[in-house]
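The instructor's notes for this session suggest beginning with a concrete chain rather than abstract definitions. Hand out the sequence below and ask the class to guess, before any prediction is shown, which regions might be ordered.
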Amino acid sequence: MGESERYIDRRLKKISLGEDHNALIALLSINIAALAIMGFIRITYMIVDSPGAVFASDILPWSILPAKLLSLVRVPWTLLTFMFIHTSFMLALTNMLWLWAFGSILQDLAGNDKIIPVYLYGGIAGAVMFIACNYAIPALRPNLGNAYLDGASASIMAIAIATTTLAPDYRIFRMLNGGIPLWVLTVLFVVIDFAALGTHAPAYLVAHLAGALMGFVFVMQLRRGYDIGAWMIRLYDWFINLFNPDKKITPQKTKDKLFYKTTHHLPFEKHPIVTQQRIDEILDKINQKGFSHLTEEEKNILKRAGESDVY
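After discussion, reveal the predicted structure:
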């Protein structure tokens, strides 16, 4: 049975907004919070009658990824922050819907601790290829200083492809004649995503393809027994536990006090019941092989038979 077949009949778990340590909810919350913060700052600029270009030049370069390496050196944290920042509300809305759709299935199939690594790996792969394309394609070099990457599209592409690679025949909308295979939804997502980019954005297209490839590689490594995102989860747990007052403290091992002698003696010994039948068997063994062939247990039985009653 293939990997996908094992997951076809699994039921999609409901994700509670109040569930602790839910990685999908954490990603959605961070994206929504970032969108709200950027929106608040934009509105503030509008209130003081500052043009949109001022907001774009003062705020955005500190949070979205520049294509120019010299600019990236000044703001290296944007290699991570860009994948949570959306400059378009409609892009943010559609991305969050796709993230929920594919992320909930991936969480059900692969576990809660796989979503964040796939998301981050996909975003970083997209960022690297975005920068590389802007340097490698001659037509893009003149605009290198003004090229920026924002949004979670490459990360969500990684989650979508990882989920589909894991279980392409997973059924959604089961009420519709048995359901629709997951790969159909993925094809629809890819077509919509690439169509939105248009033909004049090769660097963005390659960035999304790099995210997709990273999602595929992640699952293939997982099938080979290598979880390339495990170190992220360990690092995350370590960091969170630093500020967790309820963290369980492992008690120090103490030497157990022994209330019995341990030298040349076991803490307990088994003493089988002495019966007449057992004594007769031992006596027959003595007659056939001699007393020296008795085991320690048999010698003890004879000794106990002389000290107590025989059953």
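Then share the key points. Residues 260-311 form one domain. The chain is about 55% helix and 5% strand.
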